[in-house]
Specification:
By secondary structure, the chain is an alpha+beta fold. It contains 26 helices and 32 strands. The radius of gyration is 34 Å and the shape is flat. It binds one RNA strand through helix 7, strand 9, strand 13, helix 11 and strand 28.
Length: 799
RNA sequence: GGGCAAGUGGUGGAAUGGCAUACACGAAGGACUUAAAAUCCUUUGGCCGUAAGGCCGUGAGGGUUCAACUCCCUCCUUGCCCACCA
């Protein structure tokens, strides 16, 4: 007989909802625990990835609740974004209506999973109560010069008809649709995240409980590199070309310099030279290439001579100036010193164009190398040669000495360069937060006054998918009076990137209904930072970097007093089917709803936690689902045969399991926690359980299979919800064994095991071991060289 | 090209210096049943052996150690991130 999951799950979901079991308010007397899973985009259906993410979080939240914490576990919807526009066109409806319908569907699905959310805190970013505060934050940033508008080359996705942030360009394509990203010259709004680069880098040190690879990915993205900016004088002009290098140790080997084709000084350098025509043609050609083509490393490096010469400041050598496509204007100074002997790109370029080379670093053993013998650049560490007073130093020493020397002699300047760029937030789309800016022909850029917020998104803009900001077509929206001069003016028609919305929602959850500020300072003081954040690795840079930036901004506004928003981060692995990511296009989706229907939410929750540890990829297995269901039924049957008193062996097992499960839950090792619960259940099947043992088993299962446990809890005669029952404690006395098993090894190989009293003296143990009959063949007639005793565990005889 | 992570039975996985393969799936056998399902019990890394037992075994090779899946070095494979970044 199996338990009737359908009835039980519906029953308890209703009771939890009616009694507002998971509703929570700050309580200064109790310790808080803020558990947050990344909120979701309301696509209409939850998939297994959501189920996994939210189940992991739910078990942790329920566990903490039973341990007496004041647990905040909220959920909301990241509801703005382009898919709603596309869906609206396809289904002939409006993004607003579509999105709200999707939210309702998804909420119903989440409720069927039995998640312990405080639905009283729900927020949707597409509601004006929420996006009003996006606009407020934007204006605060504008006031501080952190939001600014500039014209420049931007990433453009022709399929999505909008601009993209650097973080949204993945392998040269749009993160959403993979369309190759083009470059376009546009006036756009940016956030000055680069003002925070040092802090964003520095404070990564505080994130000890984040996965190391997320830290290193952010590190990489911020991309700090230290080096020297070196000033190369032109041979016959009074100007100077600055170049940036991280390899100051190779300066004596710099035999030419190379500028990016779009470098502002290039036109002056080629003017009137023989090479002018050819150079102009080359610049023209490169300008037409997309960034993707130009930066793919397998393309041959092309370039032309400018006809001009510079002087290497360390040895006064005259060296030619080239332009080449492999030098990029947006990094460093847009110009490099080329050291073909010690940089592979320069090496290839020099070979191609027959440019001079000089070796300035040799291998540690001073093995001579000739330029003729070189088939590739020597990029490893070594000893300086041909470097004047720096000869003989290791190149690492020389790097520092040369940099200092150049700074003293004003040849160069020690500098740091960063990869991180400002964040482009303008999107030429409808379904997003309107940027609260007005353009007046007299007054210029005028921010919308705070009192006029929110700038409401019109509900009925014409969405055709044909490009151009749809808001531009809504006359009533665009045409406004200038707040300064009351003259006629025009609204900004771009909306904000949706990553703006999700960069601070965790703060909004602290005071979701507040109408005079984005969040209440005292509420945030109580709840923040998030104790445990859970989400997918795909946000390792984008969302997590932006959220860290916003948090630091709020800190600067004096609204919060901590540096980092998420204390601990867990990135859950993906759910696979047949070794591939579940996706619509692959047609290998397993629908959570059908599993709930056939086996119940508790079974689904149990399976998804048991099949793999949270961080690793999880291979979907239909038979595993049945196994999980079987286990619940096995536990269910225990209640039918409870004994008046359990035996001592079982009690010991129970205490051991309580200890193990408590530790495992705290460390998110749900798969081994479940294994222990199975062991306890198997032990119960061997000897029979009494009410106390069974109650503890039910309590420990409850975070994973809450409806199931709640029902059994009630059958056991409890009146209160198991959700708020006290987590069982183990008795350390019950873990102490009188007799222990000692492993006996000879030369590190297991030979036998001995049961001995736990408090046996070492010499007594030795005596016992040596008299053991079964060891005779291994030790007889051999001299014992060593006798290692690991207390209470093992002895190893070395012969 | 650089960085990081991983590699364990037929399968998912456990063990982070001390009994390799916990727990589960699958498979085989048994009990119950007219039969099946469900349930319960037993066996289940490979090789040799009737057995007792032995030998081998955590991607490959080397090292440290009384003892290595675990630590160190070299290599292979897979996955992820970054990348003409100067």
């Amino acid at each position: 007989m199996s338990y009737s999951f359908k009835e039980i799950e519906e029953k308890w979901q209703k009771i939890w909802h009616d009694k507002k079991i998971f509703s929570v308010q700050p309580d200064q007397e109790r310790k808080k625990y803020y558990l947050l899973e990344m909120f979701q985009y309301p696509s209409g259906k939850i998939h297994m990835g959501h189920v996994r993410n939210y189940t992991i979080g739910d078990v942790a939240a329920r566990f903490k609740l039973m341990q007496g914490f004041q647990v905040m576990h909220p959920m909301g919807f990241d509801a703005f974004g382009q898919p709603a526009e596309n869906a609206a066109i396809k289904n002939n409806t409006k993004p607003d209506i579509w999105t709200h319908k999707c939210i309702d569907w998804m909420k119903a699905e989440l409720k069927r999973m039995g998640f312990s959310y405080d639905w009283g805190r729900e927020v949707s970013t597409c509601d004006s109560d929420y996006y009003k505060w996006n606009q407020w934050i934007f204006l605060k940033m504008y006031e501080r010069g952190l939001a600014y508008k500039k014209g420049s080359d931007v990433n453009w996705c022709s399929s999505c008809e909008t601009t993209l942030a650097n973080e949204e360009v993945i392998e040269g394509g749009c993160w959403r649709c993979k369309t190759k990203v083009e470059q376009k010259d546009l006036e756009q709004w940016y956030l000055k995240i680069t003002d925070y680069k040092e802090r964003l880098l520095e404070d990564l040190n505080q994130l000890g409980d984040w996965p190391e690879r997320v830290i290193s990915m952010q590190n990489n993205w911020i991309g700090k590199s230290s080096g020297v900016e070196i000033y190369f004088k032109l041979k016959d002009l009074a100007t100077v070309i600055p170049v940036f290098t991280t390899r100051a140790d190779t300066i004596f080997g710099a035999t030419y310099i190379v500028l990016a084709p779009e470098h502002p000084q290039v036109l002056d350098l080629i003017k009137g030279r023989l090479q002018e025509k050819e150079a102009l043609k080359f610049i023209e050609k490169v300008s037409k290439e997309t960034k993707v083509v130009r930066t793919s490393s397998d393309v041959k490096k092309e370039g032309v001579f400018t006809g001009s010469y510079a002087v290497n400041p360390v040895n006064n050598e005259t060296i030619p100036i080239w332009i080449a496509d492999y030098v990029l204007m947006e990094y460093g100074t847009g110009a490099i010193m080329a050291v073909p002997t010690h940089d592979q790109r320069d090496f290839l370029f020099a070979k191609e164009h027959e440019l001079p080379m000089r070796i300035v670093i040799q291998t540690i053993d001073h093995r001579p190398t000739t330029i003729e013998a070189m088939i590739e650049a020597f990029e490893d560490d070594g000893i300086q040669v041909n470097s004047a007073q720096f000869d003989g130093f290791t190149n690492q020493e020389a790097k520092i000495k040369i940099a200092e020397w150049m700074e003293q002699t004003k040849i160069g300047k020690i500098q740091t360069h960063w990869r991180l760029r400002d964040w482009l937030i303008s999107r030429q789309r409808y379904w997003g937060t309107p940027i609260p800016i007005i353009y007046c022909s007299k007054c210029g850029i005028v921010p919308v006054p705070y009192a006029q917020l929110p700038v409401e998104l019109p509900k009925d803009a014409p969405i055709t998918g044909e490009g151009g900001s749809p808001l531009g077509k809504v006359k009533e929206f665009v045409e406004v009076k200038c707040p300064k001069c009351i003259g006629s003016a025009r609204r900004e028609t771009d909306t904000m990137a949706t990553f703006f919305d999700s960069s601070w929602y965790f703060l909004r959850f602290c005071s979701p209904k507040l109408d005079n500020a984005p969040f209440n300072v005292l509420d945030a003081k109580y709840w923040m930072p998030v104790d445990q954040y859970i989400g997918g690795i795909e946000h390792a840079i984008l969302h997590l970097l932006y959220s860290r930036f916003f948090t630091k901004f709020f800190q600067d506004l004096g609204m919060i007093d901590f540096k980092e928003p998420f204390k601990r981060l867990l990135t859950q692995g993906m759910v696979l089917k047949d070794g591939e990511v579940m996706s619509k296009s692959r047609g290998n989706i397993v629908d959570p709803d059908s599993i709930i229907k056939n086996y119940g939410a508790d079974t689904l929750r149990l399976f998804i936690l048991f099949a793999a540890p949270p961080e690793t990829e999880l291979e979907w297995d239909d038979r595993g689902i049945e196994g999980a269901n079987k286990f619940l039924n096995r536990v269910w049957r225990v209640q039918e045969n409870l004994l008046p008193k359990a035996d001592d062996v079982l009690l010991r097992t129970m205490h051991r399991v309580i200890k193990k499960v408590s530790v495992d839950y705290a460390e998110f090792k749900f798969n081994t926690a479940i294994a222990s619960l199975m062991e306890l259940t198997n032990a119960i099947y061997q000897s029979g359980a009494d009410k106390e043992v069974f109650a503890n088993l039910v309590l420990m299962i409850s975070p994973i299979a809450p409806h199931f446990a709640e029902e059994l809890w009630q059958i056991l005669g409890n009146k209160e919800s198991i959700c708020k029952a006290k987590w069982p404690e183990f008795d350390p006395k019950m873990l102490v064994e009188d007799v222990i098993t000692i492993v006996v090894q000879v030369n590190g190989k297991l030979r036998t095991k001995l049961d001995v009293p736990a408090d046996i003296a070492q010499d007594k143990l030795k005596e016992l071991v040596l008299s053991e009959e079964r060891l005779k063949p291994w030790i007889e007639g051999k001299s014992i060289r060593n006798f290692v005793i690991v207390p209470k565990k093992l002895v190893n005889i070395v012969v």
